[in-house]
């Protein structure tokens, strides 16, 4: 057991087991870090444990353990701050900046180096520099990448770890290449659980740049953990089993993450509709002898244990329903953050039918007009995995 592992367990850090029929989690109390990751501490978190799975030993992993790196991190929100914390645990040095000065002070107080602005981040890093941008897609990321392009030097690397549109990545990479600066897009999945559970990463960009930051990626990835190996994978890239993949050239990482999020929309919608049907089995529209009053929390719990629909999203649904089986703390208004729309647009461009993903997106549009129990469950799942808080009706 490593010193960092002993320190984590000494303060009550949890153990994570992925949800599948052969390996289900027990959910005692979370660590203090986990509680700090959600906007509303106490909702659901008392039921779940998550931790960093062990890295699978291998030549690549052993090499990366020996190489410590510097990384600039711009954007210290729900994920950016925890990325810095996870890297620090692995021995990497982070220079952090955010417009929110209190976020910078908090991370600096934990041993990271705080900067006053983007120029300060660049100045504090040794060449060749690498700067990870973790900001909302669109204007904030666009402006930050553009400014970094004027501050960095040939041989440096900009990493966009947010959810940018993949066509923006292609354009940015081409412009930065003219300056000798590499651009790497990283689709990052893991949400507020990533600090202990690790982040699944889908990566696009030049191979040399991706290889250069591999120690960073290896430290952030979840590792093989206790997920069974897939038969027939001998001879394939071992990094994929660790939870990160170089998908291809610029934009490919965010494209794969975009479709990942589109699939997420569909999965969540399927659960929401199923539970809505269960919830309304006591409808007065039915003959009295066909009405059932079903326990939503118990159904979610029993499905977690060995059923073919068990999943992490179902785990999160079970947490929310155990806390409040009417989900009265959720309005049912469900936001969409962009990736679902982009996935449907890609399907149209490729002439690929995507009926489920399209319907899931359209249902989110409809949820802003009227709210069902199923839509409240969608809101509950989004809060559990990402700390997303929906706007109240009329606000």
UniProtKB/TrEMBL annotation:
Pathways per UniProt: Carbohydrate degradation; pentose phosphate pathway
Entry's Gene Ontology BP terms: D-gluconate metabolic process; pentose-phosphate shunt
NCBIfam families linked: gnd_rel, PRK09599.1
UniProt region (Disordered), positions on chain: 1-44
SUPFAM superfamilies reported for this sequence: 6-phosphogluconate dehydrogenase C-terminal domain-like, NAD(P)-binding Rossmann-fold domains
UniProt name for this protein: Decarboxylating 6-phosphogluconate dehydrogenase
SMART domains: 6PGD
Cross-referenced Pfam families: 6PGD, NAD_binding_2
Keyword Oxidoreductase part of the UniProt annotation: yes
Gene coding for it: gnd
InterPro entries according to UniProt: 6-PGluconate_DH-like_C_sf, 6DGDH_YqeC, 6PGD_dom2, 6PGDH_C, 6PGDH_NADP-bd, NAD(P)-bd_dom_sf, Pgluconate_DH
Keyword terms of this UniProt record: Gluconate utilization, Oxidoreductase
Transmembrane parts of this sequence: none
Domain 6-phosphogluconate dehydrogenase C-terminal: 253-395
């Amino acid at each position: 057991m490593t010193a960092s592992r002993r320190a984590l367990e000494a303060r009550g850090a949890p153990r994570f087991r992925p949800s599948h029929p052969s390996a289900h989690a027990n959910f005692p109390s979370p660590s203090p870090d986990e509680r700090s990751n959600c906007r509303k501490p106490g909702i659901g978190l008392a039921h779940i444990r998550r931790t960093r799975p062990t890295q699978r030993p291998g030549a690549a992993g052993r090499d990366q353990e020996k190489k410590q790196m510097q990384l600039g991190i711009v954007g210290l929100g729900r994920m950016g701050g925890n990325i810095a914390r996870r890297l620090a645990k692995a021995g990497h040095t982070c220079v952090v900046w955010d417009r929110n000065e209190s976020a910078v002070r908090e991370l600096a107080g934990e041993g990271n180096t705080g900067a006053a602005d983007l120029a300060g981040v660049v100045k504090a890093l040794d060449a060749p520099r690498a700067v990870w941008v973790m900001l909302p897609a669109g204007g904030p990321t666009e402006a930050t990448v553009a400014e970094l392009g004027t501050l960095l030097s040939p041989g440096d690397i900009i990493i966009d770890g947010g959810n940018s549109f993949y066509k923006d990545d292609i354009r940015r990479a081409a412009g930065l290449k003219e300056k000798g600066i590499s651009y790497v897009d990283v689709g990052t999945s893991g949400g507020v659980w990533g600090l202990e559970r690790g982040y699944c990463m889908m990566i696009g960009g030049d191979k040399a740049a991706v290889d250069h930051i591999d120690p960073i990626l290896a430290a952030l990835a979840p590792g093989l953990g206790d997920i069974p190996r897939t038969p027939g994978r001998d001879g394939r890239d071992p990094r994929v089993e660790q939870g990160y993949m170089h998908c291809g050239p610029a934009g490919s990482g965010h494209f794969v993450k975009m479709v990942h999020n589109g699939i997420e929309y569909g999965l969540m919608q399927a659960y929401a509709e199923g539970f809505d049907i269960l919830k309304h089995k006591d409808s007065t529209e039915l003959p009295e002898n066909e009405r059932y009053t079903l326990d939503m929390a118990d159904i979610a719990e029993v499905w977690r244990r060995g059923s073919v629909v068990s999943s992490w999203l179902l785990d999160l649904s079970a947490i929310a329903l155990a806390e409040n089986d009417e989900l009265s703390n959720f309005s049912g208004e469900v936001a969409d953050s962009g990736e679902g729309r982009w996935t449907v647009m890609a399907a149209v461009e490729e002439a690929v039918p995507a009926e489920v993903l399209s319907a899931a997106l359209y249902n989110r549009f409809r949820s802003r007009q009227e709210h069902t129990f199923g839509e409240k469950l969608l809101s509950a799942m989004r809060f559990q995995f990402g700390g997303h808080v929906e706007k109240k009706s009329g606000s």
